[in-house]
């Protein structure tokens, strides 16, 4: 690497922050311009999380692409959940990755890594794990516990409505779902003369359903639904940190401003209806990945019947070309100067359930400082035990598939590589005796000729 490339490489490693307890402070070692002395886990973190991002800007595309593929291979291979079809893809890609690396690096670079990496993929896991799925479920079970100070405060009307509306539209209740369908049917009947398109119908349903169900909910329905329809108390609790049962520990961005750790990064995968225009009657439904930073942790109190913990986040505008973009190597980048659903308007949706959130770290691009590369962080001590009814790891699996796709995106076709010699960097001079080298080559040629005869 040139001096400038080394500076870019070290800048990424130096600015990276990880969640509390996830890894040692790698920046401490970077200040000393050394990468040795790290524990085994920290080396895995460096290779799987930071090295691909650091190489994006600091090396030639041909070199960075194959090293990113190698890092992605180990990241997927070290996932807590593996599927046979994913292992098959890895097994097929490993020889191609190693073949490309052999053209770029000297033979001394290679060890038994190649054989081990391929043979591991050929192993399968056939044992089935039994587990109990007959536990009694609550409509709003406890999802974690607060950590640190607690502040009691009063919600303003706009924030109260935004929070309550999220709970209403995302709770899993057949009774509430029936009320939604009834409300939509009533809107259609009341607008027969002026037929609404799908976008107008959805907006009207979204705006008026909370007040409508409050009037409809009577004493002859389930108590939980009746309390839910009335809405929470305006008196709520606020936390600076919250430990979710799925293993993540979150902190608000304000509370970690001067810390060496990063626990405020949030990612959520949500099924979203997309409209081409306001007159579109056939919206497309797809899973959209949203990235944000945790701004507030609020516990709603539904009059002691149940409590709901919500995360209020600063969400990046996911419109392509605005707050989110993909680079040529397949990495997603986000820009926090371009936000959406800030909560300033009544129809905004800044809240999510605490259990919906997955933790990510945002690594700053060393050249375009407004852009950050999000990297999904998985809990160290939580494992998927194969519960078909559990959705805890569903979006984590989707993220693994995203990283698996980097194996294809990061690849540079060989026909784009006219030569394999690095330019712009001083070469290495090797002193040797030309005459002795020539005589050695002549001897090898004579030996080969003798074998042919």
Automatic annotation (TrEMBL):
<feature type="domain" description="DUF4216">
    <location>
        <begin position="298"/>
        <end position="373"/>
    </location>
</feature>
<feature type="domain" description="DUF4218">
    <location>
        <begin position="77"/>
        <end position="113"/>
    </location>
</feature>
<dbReference type="InterPro" id="IPR025452">
    <property type="entry name" value="DUF4218"/>
</dbReference>
<dbReference type="Pfam" id="PF13952">
    <property type="entry name" value="DUF4216"/>
</dbReference>
<dbReference type="Pfam" id="PF13960">
    <property type="entry name" value="DUF4218"/>
</dbReference>
<dbReference type="InterPro" id="IPR025312">
    <property type="entry name" value="DUF4216"/>
</dbReference>
<protein>
    <recommendedName>
        <fullName>DUF4216 domain-containing protein</fullName>
    </recommendedName>
</protein>
């Amino acid at each position: 690497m040139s001096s400038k490339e080394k500076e870019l490489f070290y800048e990424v490693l130096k600015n990276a922050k990880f969640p509390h307890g996830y890894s040692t402070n790698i920046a401490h070692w970077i200040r000393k311009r050394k990468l040795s002395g790290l524990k085994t886990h920290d080396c895995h973190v460096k290779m799987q999380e930071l090295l691909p991002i650091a190489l994006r800007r600091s090396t030639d595309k041909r070199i960075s692409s194959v090293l990113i593929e190698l890092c992605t291979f180990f990241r997927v291979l070290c996932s807590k959940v593996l599927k046979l079809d994913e292992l098959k893809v890895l097994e097929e890609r490993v020889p191609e990755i190693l073949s490309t690396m052999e053209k770029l690096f000297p033979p001394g670079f290679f060890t038994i890594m190649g054989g081990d990496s391929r043979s591991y993929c050929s192993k399968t896991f056939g044992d089935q794990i039994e587990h109990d799925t007959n536990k009694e479920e609550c409509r709003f079970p406890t999802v974690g516990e607060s950590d640190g100070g607690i502040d009691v405060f009063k919600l303003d009307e706009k924030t109260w409505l935004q929070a309550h509306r999220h709970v209403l539209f995302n709770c899993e209740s057949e009774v509430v779902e029936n009320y939604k369908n009834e409300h939509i049917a009533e809107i259609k009947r009341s607008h027969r003369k002026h037929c609404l398109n799908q976008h107008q119908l959805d907006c009207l349903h979204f705006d008026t359903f909370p007040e409508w169900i409050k009037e409809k909910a009577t004493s002859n329905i389930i108590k939980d639904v009746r309390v839910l329809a009335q809405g929470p108390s305006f008196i709520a609790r606020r936390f600076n940190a919250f430990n979710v049962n799925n293993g993540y520990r979150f902190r608000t961005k304000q509370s970690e401003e001067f810390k060496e750790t990063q626990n405020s990064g949030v990612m959520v995968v949500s099924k979203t209806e997309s409209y081409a225009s306001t007159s579109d009657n056939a919206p497309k439904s797809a899973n959209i990945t949203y990235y944000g930073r945790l701004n507030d942790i609020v516990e709603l109190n539904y009059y002691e019947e149940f409590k709901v913990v919500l995360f209020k986040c600063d969400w990046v505008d996911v419109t392509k070309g605005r707050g989110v973009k993909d680079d040529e190597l397949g990495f997603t980048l986000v820009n926090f100067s371009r936000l959406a659903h800030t909560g300033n308007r009544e129809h905004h949706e800044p809240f999510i359930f605490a259990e919906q959130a997955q933790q990510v770290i945002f690594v700053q691009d060393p050249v375009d400082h407004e852009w950050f590369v999000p990297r999904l962080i998985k809990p160290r001590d939580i494992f998927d035990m194969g519960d078909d009814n559990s959705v805890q790891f569903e979006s984590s699996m989707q993220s693994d598939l995203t990283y698996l796709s980097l194996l294809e995106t990061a690849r540079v076709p060989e026909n784009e590589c006219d030569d394999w010699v690095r330019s712009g960097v001083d070469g290495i001079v090797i002193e040797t005796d030309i005459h002795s080298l020539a005589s050695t080559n002549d001897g090898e040629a004579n030996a080969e000729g003798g074998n042919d005869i």
